[in-house]
Amino acid sequence: MRAMRFLTGLAILLVLGAGAFVSYAWHSAIDPIDPPSQASFDRTLVARGADLAAIGNCNVCHTAPGGQPFAGGLGIPTPFGTIYSTNITPDPETGIGRWPEAAFIRSMRKGVDREGRHLYPAFPYDHYTLVSDEDNRALYAFLMTRSAVSAAPPENELPFPFNMRMLLAGWKALYFREGPYQPDTSKTAEWNRGHYLTEGLSHCGACHTPRNRLGAEKKDEYFAGAEVENWTVYPINANSPAPIPWEADSLTFYLRHGWHEHHGASRGSMAPVTANLGSIPEPDVRAIATYVADVMGRPSQERIARGEAALATVRKESASPLALRASSTGSGIGEAIFLSACQGCHDGRRSVPFGGLNLHLSSAVNAPNAQNIINVTLFGLPAAKGEPSAIMPAYRGVLSQDQLVALLDYMRERFSDQPAWADTRERVAATMNGEREVPIYRMDGTTQAPPETSMRTAPWP
Ligand code: HEC
Ligand code: HEC
Ligand code: HEC
Known about the structure:
Blueprint: H1 2-19, H2 21-25, H3 43-56, H4 58-61, E1 75-78, E2 81-84, H5 101-110, H6 125-128, H7 133-144, H8 168-175, H9 189-199, H10 205-208, E3 226-228, E4 231-233, H11 248-257, E5 259-260, E6 264-265, H12 270-277, H13 282-296, H14 301-319, H15 322-327, H16 333-346, H17 363-366, H18 371-379, H19 401-415, H20 424-432
The structure holds heme C (3 copies).
The site of one heme C has 23 residues, from helix 3, helix 4 and helix 5.
């Protein structure tokens, strides 16, 4: 079945690759230069580039666990094989030290390297193509003034035919629309700024929009949610599962701080995104929030009423924690575990992020599957390095599979009005036996966390 799909995909790509040859296939090499001196770059341009690199999460993919910043070598799993990020420090031999600015701008705009070879869209140039020349110049200045690190990434682990970069000409013909960004003049300047950043450098859709079998985002399921690295990425469109509807203010706060009192903490691969956004000027984050809130749309009266009811329940429960026990609907083992192991922190009496969210407010219990709760319960929330942060103990080795399934079923019934999850047992088993590898990211702090790449720790042993 899988092989068949690959073959069909391959056939499509070959036909398109041939068709697209003229327009996409051939790019000439751009001559190398002697690495420019760091002093030749304007300081304000470099500072601007630092903010843009944070918005673009360049550090997250271009730093291997325990490796030097931007020196590459992180393996990015795709359905086709593993692709390693490259060294984008100014090292002349293994990095981009000999790349002229024009080659860098072309790589961002067209997804081609200095020598003219197609790059895999694991490098999200389908978004970065929208970045303006001016912003690309600032990014180039920032990267070329980092410390040069000599480090060559491992070879990609892509089976034939996916190791043929030529095929990417076909992919580009099908799915790639070249930028730069064109503003929508019917909207406000802030909306356009937000649209430019969200679709371009921030590439939110790379995780929040589901992909087709050739790895391209499904434009007709924009921000509809997906699963990335065994974390469930929630929808951030009209189908947002958040009990209290998101709005521009709460989004701004969450994106900058990594948590919100009505929504809890950002976890998994969202944690480095909010850590990076915590380091950039507020107006840019607010612009992103304004645009995303617009995509979500105005919540219906009914949804607002449900959010208010959830908040009222939470207030009642935090005033008198015993109410939780009295109003419990479930019974048996799941309830017993929740009341003894979880309730003490999740009764809403201690505020987020040091206290746990009252789960009546959690998107996780309303999500299409239990994966994120499984991940958080088994692996906990590791503390951020050297700063206050949300912490939750890991229950791996404490709970059996049956107990975890019972706990999850109870939480779904107790805190959500959605039907029971269908695949909880399979997910619990696959996660506990390591078949589903879950990368764990340290939490960013309570305020502005440094955009620190060691947040990404290796998958647990
Ligand atoms: C989601 C992961 C991801 C993010 C985020 C990312 N990159 Fe990359 N990047 C990659 C991968 C993977 C490659 C290698 C692609 C290939 O081999 O075809 C790459 C390649 C590149 C290259 C080509 C280098 C070469 O030697 O061929 C440049 C330049 C680059 N990235 C710059 C950036 C910049 C600047 C940012 C931030 C604005 C960024 N990348 C963010 C994954 C990422
Ligand atoms: C690398 C993947 C990735 C990228 C890029 C990403 N997200 Fe997320 N996002 C996630 C994951 C995973 C979650 C679920 C996290 C959790 O359970 O706390 C999430 C959760 C969220 C939530 C919380 C939703 C809820 O109802 O609780 C919001 C809001 C959000 N993301 C917005 C954004 C925006 C805006 C961007 C772009 C600036 C973005 N994300 C980029 C992976 C990503
Ligand atoms: C020592 C305190 C503590 C204990 C005990 C604890 N948690 Fe947490 N938990 C937290 C904190 C702090 C957070 C981060 C804030 C937040 O998002 O709720 C968190 C987050 C979570 C989240 C994410 C909520 C969201 O949507 O943002 C879930 C789900 C969760 N915990 C489930 C559990 C379960 C299940 C148990 C019992 C097996 C448990 N927790 C026990 C402190 C705790």
